[in-house]
Amino acid sequence: MSRLRPHVLPMRTLMIAACCMAATFSARVQSQPAVPPPSRLGLCAACHGPSGNASVPGMPNLAGQRLDYLRDALSQYRDGRRNVPVMRAAIGPVSAAELDALARWYSAQSPQPQAHP
Ligand code: HEC
Protein backbone atom coordinates (compact mmCIF):
# COMPACT_ATOMS: atom_id res chain seq x y z
CA MET A 1 0.00 0.00 0.00
CA SER A 2 1.58 3.24 -1.13
CA ARG A 3 1.37 6.34 0.95
CA LEU A 4 -0.06 9.45 -0.70
CA ARG A 5 2.63 11.97 -1.39
CA PRO A 6 1.56 15.40 -0.17
CA HIS A 7 1.60 17.03 -3.63
CA VAL A 8 -0.59 14.43 -5.35
CA LEU A 9 -3.96 15.63 -4.11
CA PRO A 10 -3.52 19.36 -4.84
CA MET A 11 -2.14 18.50 -8.28
CA ARG A 12 -5.17 16.41 -9.09
CA THR A 13 -7.50 19.13 -7.81
CA LEU A 14 -5.74 21.65 -10.00
CA MET A 15 -6.07 19.43 -13.06
CA ILE A 16 -9.77 18.93 -12.47
CA ALA A 17 -10.22 22.66 -12.00
CA ALA A 18 -8.30 23.33 -15.22
CA CYS A 19 -10.51 20.88 -17.11
CA CYS A 20 -13.65 22.52 -15.74
CA MET A 21 -12.40 25.94 -16.76
CA ALA A 22 -11.54 24.71 -20.24
CA ALA A 23 -15.01 23.18 -20.63
CA THR A 24 -16.70 26.35 -19.43
CA PHE A 25 -14.57 28.46 -21.73
CA SER A 26 -15.27 26.38 -24.82
CA ALA A 27 -19.02 26.36 -24.02
CA ARG A 28 -18.94 30.12 -23.77
CA VAL A 29 -17.07 30.44 -27.06
CA GLN A 30 -19.60 28.23 -28.82
CA SER A 31 -22.52 30.33 -27.63
CA GLN A 32 -20.97 33.49 -29.09
CA PRO A 33 -22.31 34.60 -32.47
CA ALA A 34 -20.12 33.46 -35.34
CA VAL A 35 -19.88 36.98 -36.74
CA PRO A 36 -18.48 39.88 -34.70
CA PRO A 37 -20.89 42.81 -34.21
CA PRO A 38 -20.68 45.34 -37.09
CA SER A 39 -18.85 48.57 -36.28
CA ARG A 40 -21.94 50.75 -36.85
CA LEU A 41 -24.26 48.62 -34.69
CA GLY A 42 -24.42 51.38 -32.06
CA LEU A 43 -26.27 53.62 -34.55
CA CYS A 44 -29.15 51.17 -34.80
CA ALA A 45 -29.06 49.59 -31.35
CA ALA A 46 -30.56 52.66 -29.66
CA CYS A 47 -33.87 51.88 -31.35
CA HIS A 48 -33.68 48.27 -32.54
CA GLY A 49 -31.51 46.87 -29.72
CA PRO A 50 -28.07 45.30 -30.26
CA SER A 51 -29.66 41.93 -31.00
CA GLY A 52 -32.60 43.27 -33.00
CA ASN A 53 -35.01 42.81 -30.12
CA ALA A 54 -36.28 46.34 -29.62
CA SER A 55 -36.92 47.47 -26.07
CA VAL A 56 -38.35 50.81 -27.21
CA PRO A 57 -42.11 50.67 -27.87
CA GLY A 58 -43.03 51.14 -31.53
CA MET A 59 -39.64 50.02 -32.88
CA PRO A 60 -39.71 46.95 -35.11
CA ASN A 61 -37.76 43.85 -34.07
CA LEU A 62 -35.19 42.84 -36.67
CA ALA A 63 -33.80 39.68 -35.03
CA GLY A 64 -34.06 36.63 -37.26
CA GLN A 65 -35.77 38.55 -40.06
CA ARG A 66 -34.98 37.26 -43.54
CA LEU A 67 -31.83 38.79 -44.94
CA ASP A 68 -33.38 39.70 -48.30
CA TYR A 69 -36.29 41.42 -46.53
CA LEU A 70 -33.91 43.52 -44.41
CA ARG A 71 -31.81 44.41 -47.45
CA ASP A 72 -34.95 45.43 -49.40
CA ALA A 73 -36.28 47.50 -46.52
CA LEU A 74 -32.97 49.33 -46.15
CA SER A 75 -32.73 50.11 -49.85
CA GLN A 76 -36.33 51.38 -49.75
CA TYR A 77 -35.47 53.82 -46.95
CA ARG A 78 -32.35 54.79 -48.86
CA ASP A 79 -34.14 55.65 -52.11
CA GLY A 80 -37.27 57.07 -50.48
CA ARG A 81 -39.79 54.38 -51.45
CA ARG A 82 -40.21 54.07 -47.71
CA ASN A 83 -40.30 57.70 -46.67
CA VAL A 84 -39.70 57.42 -42.93
CA PRO A 85 -37.54 60.37 -41.83
CA VAL A 86 -36.20 58.67 -38.68
CA MET A 87 -34.87 55.67 -40.64
CA ARG A 88 -33.65 57.77 -43.54
CA ALA A 89 -31.66 59.89 -41.08
CA ALA A 90 -30.32 56.81 -39.28
CA ILE A 91 -28.91 55.17 -42.40
CA GLY A 92 -27.83 58.44 -44.07
CA PRO A 93 -24.17 58.29 -43.00
CA VAL A 94 -23.85 54.48 -43.31
CA SER A 95 -22.13 53.02 -46.37
CA ALA A 96 -23.74 50.28 -48.44
CA ALA A 97 -21.20 47.72 -47.19
CA GLU A 98 -21.85 48.68 -43.57
CA LEU A 99 -25.62 48.48 -44.08
CA ASP A 100 -25.20 45.03 -45.53
CA ALA A 101 -23.15 43.96 -42.49
CA LEU A 102 -25.92 45.30 -40.23
CA ALA A 103 -28.60 43.44 -42.18
CA ARG A 104 -26.59 40.19 -41.93
CA TRP A 105 -26.01 40.76 -38.22
CA TYR A 106 -29.68 41.33 -37.40
CA SER A 107 -30.79 38.46 -39.61
CA ALA A 108 -28.47 36.08 -37.72
CA GLN A 109 -29.82 37.04 -34.24
CA SER A 110 -32.45 35.04 -32.37
CA PRO A 111 -35.83 36.63 -31.72
CA GLN A 112 -36.64 36.85 -28.00
CA PRO A 113 -40.09 36.50 -26.50
CA GLN A 114 -41.81 39.86 -26.16
CA ALA A 115 -41.03 41.64 -22.90
CA HIS A 116 -44.36 43.47 -23.05
CA PRO A 117 -47.01 41.29 -24.72
C1 HEC B 1 -34.31 56.66 -33.95
C2 HEC B 1 -34.72 55.28 -34.01
C3 HEC B 1 -34.14 54.40 -35.10
C4 HEC B 1 -32.81 54.21 -35.41
C5 HEC B 1 -31.59 54.88 -34.79
C6 HEC B 1 -32.78 53.18 -36.44
N1 HEC B 1 -34.05 52.77 -36.75
FE1 HEC B 1 -34.55 51.33 -38.09
N2 HEC B 1 -36.53 51.73 -37.76
C7 HEC B 1 -37.03 52.67 -36.88
C8 HEC B 1 -38.47 52.77 -37.04
C9 HEC B 1 -39.42 53.67 -36.25
C10 HEC B 1 -38.82 51.84 -38.06
C11 HEC B 1 -40.21 51.58 -38.66
C12 HEC B 1 -40.32 52.50 -39.86
C13 HEC B 1 -41.46 52.17 -40.81
O1 HEC B 1 -42.63 52.32 -40.41
O2 HEC B 1 -41.18 51.80 -41.96
C14 HEC B 1 -37.57 51.21 -38.49
C15 HEC B 1 -37.49 50.22 -39.44
C16 HEC B 1 -36.34 49.56 -39.80
C17 HEC B 1 -36.29 48.43 -40.71
C18 HEC B 1 -37.48 47.78 -41.41
C19 HEC B 1 -38.15 46.81 -40.47
C20 HEC B 1 -39.32 46.11 -41.10
O3 HEC B 1 -39.82 45.17 -40.46
O4 HEC B 1 -39.77 46.48 -42.19
C21 HEC B 1 -34.98 48.05 -40.80
C22 HEC B 1 -34.41 46.91 -41.63
C23 HEC B 1 -34.21 48.95 -39.96
N3 HEC B 1 -35.07 49.84 -39.35
C24 HEC B 1 -32.85 48.89 -39.80
C25 HEC B 1 -32.11 49.86 -39.12
C26 HEC B 1 -30.67 49.93 -39.13
C27 HEC B 1 -29.75 48.95 -39.86
C28 HEC B 1 -30.31 51.00 -38.36
C29 HEC B 1 -28.93 51.55 -38.09
C30 HEC B 1 -28.15 52.00 -39.22
C31 HEC B 1 -31.55 51.59 -37.86
N4 HEC B 1 -32.60 50.88 -38.36
C32 HEC B 1 -31.61 52.68 -37.01
C33 HEC B 1 -36.28 53.40 -35.97
C34 HEC B 1 -34.91 53.50 -35.96
Q: What's this model, at a glance?
A:
The chain is an all-alpha fold and 117 residues long.
Report the biggest beta sheet as strand number plus sense, adding barrel if it closes: none
Bound compounds, please?
heme C
Radius of gyration: 23 Å
* CATH level 4 superfamily of the largest domain: Cytochrome c-like domain
Mean pLDDT: 82
Content of β-strand: under 5%
Low-confidence stretches: 24-30
Order of helices and strands: HHHHH
Shape: elongated
How many β strands by DSSP? 0
CATH fold type of the largest domain = Cytochrome Bc1 Complex, Chain D, domain 2
Query: What structural category arises from helix and sheet content?
Result: mainly alpha
Number of helices: 5
- Straight-line N-to-C gap: 67 Å
Helix content: 55-70%
CATH class of the largest domain: Mainly Alpha
CATH architecture of the largest domain: Orthogonal Bundle
When the domains are counted, the total is 2
Structure description:
- By secondary structure, this protein is mainly alpha-helical.
- The protein folds into two domains: 1-32; 41-108, Cytochrome Bc1 Complex, Chain D, domain 2, CATH 1.10.760.
- 56% of the residues lie in helices and 0% in strands.
- It has five helices and no strands.
- The protein has helices spanning 8-31, 41-48, 67-79, 85-91, 96-108.
- The longest helix is centred in the N-terminal third of the chain and has 24 residues, at 8-31.
- The radius of gyration is 23 Å and the shape is elongated.
- The model is unreliable at 24-30 (pLDDT under 50).
- Bound molecules: heme C (HEC).
- Heme C (HEC) binds next to α2, α3 and α4.
